[in-house]
Amino acid sequence: MEKNMMNITRKSSCLIPPSMLIGVLLVLLPIFLFITFDQVEKQKAHIRERLFIRGASLIRTFEAGTRSGMLSMAWGIRKVQNMLLETSFQPDISYIAITDDAGRVLAHSDPDMVGRKLGQIPDSISLNRDAFTFSSREIQRGDTPVFEIFKRFAPHQNRHTHHRRRSHPRIQSGGHPLLFESGVYYIFTGLSMERMNRIQRRLVRRAVGSGVLFFLLGGAGVIGLMFFQAYRVTEADLTRVQAFSDNLVQNMPTGLITVDTTGTIISENRAARKILGGNLQKPFSQMRAMAGEIASSGEVICEEFDLVRTDSPRLRLDMIGSPLLDNDGKMTGFLFLFRDLTKMRLLEQELETTRRLAAIGKLAGGVAHEIRNPLSSIKGFATYFMKRSKHESQDVETAGIMIKEVERINQSITQLLEFATPLAARKEEVMMAGLIEHSLRLAEHDLKERKIAVTVAIEPGLGSFRTDPQHVCQILLNLYKNALYAMEEGGQLTIMAGLDSEEKGLEIRVKDNGSGMDRQTLEHIFDPYFTTRPDGTGLGLSLVHRMIETLGGTIRVVSQPANGTEFVLFFPEDPVDSEVRNDL
After folding, report:
1. What separation in angstroms does the CA of 168 have from each of 76, 172, 175, 186?
2. How does pLDDT run across 278-302, given as a tens digit for each residue?
3. Does any domain span residue 208?
4. How many CB atoms are closer than 10 A to CB 73?
5. 135 and 44: one domain?
6. Strand, coil or helix: what is 485?
7. Domains in the chain, number
8. SS3 sequence, 46-110?
9. pLDDT value at 11 more than 50
10. Which of 129, 181, 179 is CA-nearest to residue 152?
C-alpha cells in the first residue's frame, strides 16, 4: 500500500507530462495561425470592398454631373476639368483622370497632367468595353500606394438608354456634337491607401492580438481540462486506494487500534471490536504503559499479557505497538496490532494436560497392577482372622476395618485403572433435552439438600445429537458434583445447551455462582489426584477430561475467586450425522 501511495504522489507532482503540453501547443498553433490569417484576409477584402464602392460611387456621381452639364449647359472640356479639380479635394482622393483609349490624359485633377500619358494603363483585355462595368487594381503612384478604380467613360449613356441604337451622334444646342459622344474614353479614380493601410495594420494587430488571446485562452482551456481530468483521475486513484486501505484495515484478521498522543482512541477495526467484545472507550492499562515506553524509546514494542476486565472474560493478548509519525518525523500517535491467544493458550494447556494425563495414566496402570495383588492377600488374611476370632469382638472389629480400607483402596485402584484404560465411545442419536433432564434427576436429591436453584436454557432448535449418552451423562454428573461443593450454602446452577453454527457442533455450559477458583488452581484441576477437598479423590475432573477427549470434544473453564465457575463443553458434529443432515 505504501508503494501505491508513493506512485500516486509521483503522479500528483507531475499530472501532465511536458511532451503532452508541447503536443497540445503544436496542435493549437496551426489553428491559431489559420484563424489569424483568415481574419487578416477578410479585413483586407473588406477594406478593398469599401474603397471599390467609394470609387465606383465617385465615378457614377461624376458621370451624372458631366451628363447634366453637357446636355443642359453645353459643357466643354474646361468645365469637366474644373469639376475634376473640385471633386479631387475630397479626402483620400489622389487623382481623377479621363483618358482616351491610347492613355492620353484629356482631363485630370492635376492640370499639369493634361495631354500627357497617364502612365501604365491596363491592357485592352482588362479595359472592359462595357460602360457599366467597373474594374480595380492596386498600383504605386510615386511614393503613394493607390487603389485605382476605372471604367469606360460614357457620360451620355445610362442604364435606361444604352440599349438604344443610334446611327448619328447627338447635337448640342449650338449645333456641335456632344463631348465624349464619339470615340472611346476611360475614367480613372485613384484613392490613397495610406489611411486604409494604417487602419489595416491596426486591424491586423487587433486580429493578431485576438488570435494570440485565443491561442492563450484555448491553450489554457485545453491544459486546464487536461489538468482537471488528471486531477479527477488522481482523485479517483486516491479514493480507490483509500477505499482499499479502509477495506484492508476493517477486514484484516488482526485487531488494530490507533491512539493519539493524548490517549484518545482514534479508530479501531472490526477484528478489534470482535476480540474486545465491542467498542473500546479508552485504552486499557497495558496499552497506556506500552504507549509511554514507545514515546520514550521511539521503537516498536511487542508484549504478551492477560487482559482482565470485570465485565468480560480474561483474554490473552499478543500486542505490537508502533509510533505514528507525520512527514516531519513528529510523533502523532500510536498504532497497536494484537491477536487473541486465549484459545491458543487454552489448547496448549489442554495439550499439556493431555500429555501429562497420558503419562500419569501409564504410570498409574503399572502401579495399580502391582498394588492390587498384595491387597487381595491382605483382604484374604483379614477375612481369615475375622472368622477365626469371631468370639473376640475387638479382633473382629479390627479385621472389619482392615477389609473396608482394602476395599476403599481397591476402589481407588479400579478408578485409576479406568482412568488409565482407553475409553470406548458408543455414539447414537440422543435427544439432548431429555439427556440433560435425566442427568438433573440423578442429582436432584443432592441439589435440593444443598438448596441450589437450577435454571435450564436449551436452544429451541436443538433436537437430537449423535454422541455417547453414558459419557455425556457422567460428565454432567461430575460437573454438578463439582458445583455442589463450590456452593455449600446454596446458590444458582445454570445449564445452557445449543448448536454452534460456526464451529459445527454442540455446546453445553454448566455455570455456578460458588466460590470460584484462582489461576493456580485452574492450571491443575484436570491433573489426577489434584483436589482442594479433604475427602476428594482428585479423579473426577480428570475422568471428565478423558471422556470429552474420547468424544473428540474440548472443555474450557472460566472462573474467578468469589465469582463462580463456568465449564464450556464442545462436542463436534459427527461426520455420519453431518452427511445425514446434508442429504436432508
Report:
1. 20, 13, 13, 22
2. 878 888 888 888 888 888 888 898 9
3. no
4. 11
5. yes
6. helix
7. 4
8. HHHHHHHHHHHHHHHHHHHHHHHHHHHHCCCHHHHHHHHHHHCCCCCEEEEEEEECCCEEEEECC
9. no
10. 129
